[in-house]
Amino acid sequence: MKKLFASLVVVCMLASGTLVFAAEDVVVDADMVIEHEAQGDVMPISEVETEEPAADAETTENAEATEDTEAVEEVEATEETTAEEAEKVEETEETAEVVIDTAAMVKNAFVLDGAKIELAEGMGTLIEKDGVVFVPARAALEAAGYQVSWSDAEQMVMGANQTTGAMFIMQLGNTLLFYLDTEGVEGKITMEAAPFKNEVEWRTYVPLSDFAKVLGYKVGFDAENATINLSK
Fold first, then answer.
1. Which of 27, 71, 140, 181 has the fewest CB atoms nearer than 10 Å to its CB?
2. Which segments of 45-194 does DSSP mark as H helices, in order?
3. What is the DSSP code (8-state) at residue 99?
4. Closest by alpha carbon to 10, among 153, 148, 162?
5. How far apart are CA 61 and CA 72, in angstroms?
6. pTM higher than 0.90 for the full model?
């Protein structure tokens, strides 16, 4: 499965370069002709004792039903509006820009789901480059429960989570990131910057915000402790 997904992505990247409720009107016919035979003659309607037309009762019932329907629709519309407003608030919170003090941030550690992850010596550090915060791919991925593999020929980093089935692949110098989510749905995103390799450390670095997004994490910054927080 993993080989198939990786092969498919590699081919894509290399070949394309882009790695009423409808209520019916009720018409009540109130014109009624009532004829009674009385000794062979037709009794004038004015002389006939008539009861209250049943149509009036139907009209009342229909009017009440219409009012009930309108009330239900109004409640449903209010609930939909409230839900939409809540979604907009949530989207605003999610898309709100997180300000990271790159000069003060702790570079050898970050917080993942409340647990502090310290980067061992030689495993890289958090760095800022051209306004983008990068994280060493292997250290961060392994902390998130992913197995990491590297293709030297294609200059690609691949990660796979054996528990959730999620996978992703990215290539040095390419801003496209291809992924397979936990539901088995394939997709891709364009990262704000391309992954690169630190030739001194021999470590691959990926943009923190895009990396977190694909793995299902939100990025936060604890200004008091100067640490980057990743949480679901």
1. 27
2. 54-95, 137-143
3. P
4. 153
5. 16
6. no
